[in-house]
Every structure is written in structure tokens, then in C-alpha cells.
Write a structure and sequence with these properties.
- Helices cover 33% and strands 26% of the residues.
- It is of the alpha/beta class and 324 residues long.
- The protein has one domain: UDP-N-acetylmuramoyl-L-alanine:D-glutamate ligase, CATH 3.40.1190.
- Strand 12 and strand 13 form a beta hairpin.
- The radius of gyration is 19 Å and the shape is globular.
Length: 324
């Protein structure tokens, strides 16, 4: 069983315009409304890859004033709903694209959670049995402390000691978990987030990122996947005798890149549940991220396209780097 945790999900409004000007009345040419939140996107993608309902569960918090959209989305994609409902509403996020594809975002912070919110979330986690993989996704909701994700990791270690934990967040929550006593099994920072962990700027250059992967700040995390934009990714796999890899991917014609990082997590969770090797877990993650790019929907993949990408050695190349 796979579980994703999203403490601060969203309902996302996406607008397209021919032109967008500040201080002026702008007209949209296309719009759509989607249920968002990094963990919800990851859960949706993992469930699509399984092609069977109830192999993926999702938890977190949503407000009861607009919870129906979240509930309907989870149900439609066969994801078990273990969310904590609280008085209030799930936050709204707005994305506007101009005629050149330039994106402007306005994201609400989210509603303040009840004082016992974390305890309620831990109880929900306890109800999901047979966990093999868990992801903790996105920003923490208002009212939760920076060490909340460390608390979640410690709790998961107790109730599901064999589950592999992916932490997909940034900022202080990421640094707190990686540097503390409750490190996750897998993180997937971009080069900027890697720089936040190690304490110095890291560019999208693969050699520079590979060097940063040897920083002692990452010593407690077994699998680190660093995305480098068009330069692919670099990987550290292991603690005592780590192996290093460089990933190259072929660029696909982009339709919508929103949710691609979340799709990577969904693909990796699928690989974890299937018992794949770390290299194949990464391969499925990369394929899912690529497959999302060619879809109009956010956090959505075609299962057959993912399999096609996984099985095409020209599309995804994972090469071990000799670090002796």
C-alpha cells in the first residue's frame, strides 16, 4: 500500500490569456479548475500506473466548506481517502499564463488548522495498513511547526518500519528533516533546494551537483535525486558505499509542465510498491514526470506512455559515474 501526505492541499484555478497586464482588465481565453496539492497529484499518478483502485491512499487536511472537489477527485481516481476534515476551506491557488506562456501565480497560505490537527493526522496514518511507501509532500499548513515532517517520519518508522519514505518539500522543513535524527529515505530536491541543504549555491551543472551530493549534510539520506532542469538529474544511492549516477532524458514537446515533479514522486512510489531496484524506481519516476508534460491535465499520466518511456533506452539514460 502507498500513502501520500499533503498537509496543505489546494483547489487550483488555471487561466490562459492572449496577454496579461498588471493594473488592467484582462480576459481569459481558456480556464480550468483542478484539485491540487503535491501529494494528491502524486497519489493520482501512482493510482493511474497501478490501473487498479485502492492500492493508493492519501491523507492530510482539507476544509469542510469545499471538500467535495477533493473527495470527488480521490474517488474518481481510485485513491483511498484518509483526510482529516476541519472547519474552514481548502486554500485556492491561481495561475495565469500570458500569450507567451509566462506564468504568474498567486497562492493562498491556507486555513489555520485546529490545535489537535497533528494528533488527528497521526491517527489517520495508523489506519492505513501494509505500507510499503509513503511520501510527505509540499509545504506544511499554517499552524504546523518546522519539525512537523520530522515528527511524521518518526511516527511512520514506528507503525510501518519497512516503508520507504519520500520527502518532497523545501525550505526549513526539508533542512530540519535531512539534518536531524529523522531523515527520510528519499529526497528529490532541485539544484536550488540542494544548495539550501548544503549551505552554498549549486547550479544546474551536473558535475557541480554531483560534487554537492558528497556533502556531509546528506549523509543520512540513502537516495537523493537532484533534478537539473534540461540537464536531467544526478543521483546518490546509498550511505556507507554510495553509488552516483547521471540521468539524461530526451525532451518532449511540452503541453503542461505543472505537476511534473509530483508525477516523478508518483512514479517512484509505484516502483517502490512493485519492489523495483533503486535504478528502476528512478526510471519510473522520470518516465512519469515526462509523461505528465505532454498532458493538458496537471498531475496526470497515460500508463501506456509511461511504460513506453521506461522501455525506450533512448528516452531515459541512467549512467553510473565513476567516483573513485
Amino acid at each position: 500500500m502507498i500513502l501520500t501526505i499533503t498537509t496543505n492541499p489546494s483547489v487550483d484555478y488555471v487561466y490562459k490569456t492572449d496577454s496579461f497586464q498588471l493594473g488592467r482588465t484582462n480576459r481569459e481565453t481558456e480556464h480550468h479548475l483542478v484539485v491540487g496539492g503535491k501529494g494528491i497529484n502524486a497519489a493520482r499518478v501512482a493510482s493511474l500506473l497501478f490501473n487498479r483502485p485502492n492500492l493508493v491512499a492519501a491523507t492530510g487536511f482539507y476544509g469542510n466548506r469545499n471538500s467535495e472537489m477533493v473527495e470527488d477527485d480521490l474517488n474518481y481516481y481510485g485513491v483511498q481517502n484518509h483526510f482529516v476534515s476541519f472547519p474552514g476551506r481548502t486554500r485556492y491557488c491561481y495561475t495565469i499564463y500570458d500569450g507567451n506562456g509566462v506564468k504568474t501565480e498567486l497562492n493562498e497560505l491556507g486555513s489555520l488548522l485546529p490545535a489537535n490537527g497533528l494528533d488527528l493526522l497521526l491517527q489517520k496514518i495508523d489506519t492505513v495498513k501494509g505500507l510499503t511507501g509513503v511520501s510527505i509532500n509540499g509545504s506544511s499548513a499554517p499552524g504546523l511547526s518546522n519539525d512537523t515532517y520530522s515528527t511524521l517520519i518518526k511516527h511512520i518508522r514506528k507503525v510501518a518500519p519497512d516503508a520507504r519514505i519520500i520527502l518532497d518539500t523545501s525550505g526549513e522543513s526539508l533542512r530540519e528533516s535531512v539534518r536531524g535524527t529523522a531523515a527520510p529515505d528519499i529526497i528529490k530536491p532541485n539544484n536550488g533546494e540542494l544548495g539550501e541543504i548544503v549551505g552554498y549555491e549549486v547550479s544546474e551543472d551536473a558535475n557541480e551537483a554531483l560534487a554537492a551530493l558528497k556533502d556531509p549534510a546528506l549523509k543520512n539520506v540513502p537516495l537523493v535525486v537532484v533534478s537539473l532542469g534540461e540537464n536531467g538529474a544526478v543521483i546518490k544511492d546509498g550511505i556507507d558505499d554510495p553509488q552516483y549516477y547521471q540521468v539524461s532524458v530526451q525532451k518532449l514537446e511540452e503541453v503542461n509542465a505543472e505537476g511534473s515533479g509530483d508525477s516523478v514522486v508518483g512514479g517512484m512510489l509505484y516502483g517502490i510498491e512493485r519492489g523495483f531496484s533503486d535504478v528502476d524506481i528512478i526510471r519510473y519516476g522520470m518516465a512519469a514526470g515526462m509523461a505528465n508534460v505532454i498532458e493538458k491535465k496537471t498531475g496526470y499520466v497515460n500508463r501506456l506512455k509511461v511504460e513506453e518511456l521506461v522501455n525506450d533506452p533512448e528516452m531515459i539514460q541512467i549512467m553510473q559515474v565513476d567516483e573513485r
